[in-house]
Structure formats: structure tokens, C-alpha cells
Amino acid sequence: MAQNKPPITPIRQPKLSDGSSATVLERKTEKVKPPQMYQVVLLNDDYTPMEFVVMVLQEFFSKDLETATQIMLKVHVEGRGVCGVYSKDVATTKVEQVLEAAHKAGHPLKCVSEPAP
Ligand code: TYC
Fold it and tell me: Which fold has domain 37-115?
């Protein structure tokens, strides 16, 4: 794929010892910050079955059974837990998917996204 190179700009025009001059060109690479990433967080409640939360973690966050169970138990004990870190759009979509699945199943499971530290 063709790369868009930043423009070449003359930065110095030193006089050489023979009296002539030279132009020094420099290609400055623009520094762009990596985009802010977002973590999707599951919140604990007293009613959503543990099995449903494990299923959500497997289905929407591609966790294996052991990892999904660990995250679910962490949420159960600590009140919240990170399911994954994504771009803003993907994190938003994950939250929507989880909330829709929970709503359809009649569970009050809550899920939010927030800027990753
Ligand atoms: N606390 C729930 C229970 O005892 C289980 C649960 C875990 C609910 C994680 C939500 O995000 C959650 N059935």
C-alpha cells in the first residue's frame, strides 16, 4: 500500500567553504498519538445467573471457559471487572450487544465502557 509521506522542507542553507551554498532537506515524520482505547466493564448485580455472565464473556469477548469464569467471579466478588479493551466504536458495540442479550434473557446485567487508563 502506498504510504503518504510528509512533505520535504528545506531547513538549512549553509554556506560551504568554497562560497557555494547547499540546501539541506529534512523529512519530518509527524507524531500522532495512539487513539484512546476503551475498556468494557461488567458490573455485579444480585440476580443475573453466573452461567449467563460466563456465556456473555465467551460469546462477546471470546474468552475461554476458564478465563470467563475467573472474570465472572472477580465481578461477583469485587463488583466490577474488565472484559476487554477496544477502540471506542468496538467497545460501544460490545456494551450494546451485552445489554441487548441480557434484556432479551430478562436479566438486569449492566455493562459500561470507559476510557482505559
Ligand atoms: N452476583 C451474581 C449472582 O450471584 C453473578 C454475577 C456475576 C452477576 C457477574 C453479574 O456481572 C455479573 N448470581
Answer: Ribosomal Protein L30; Chain: A, (3.30.1390)
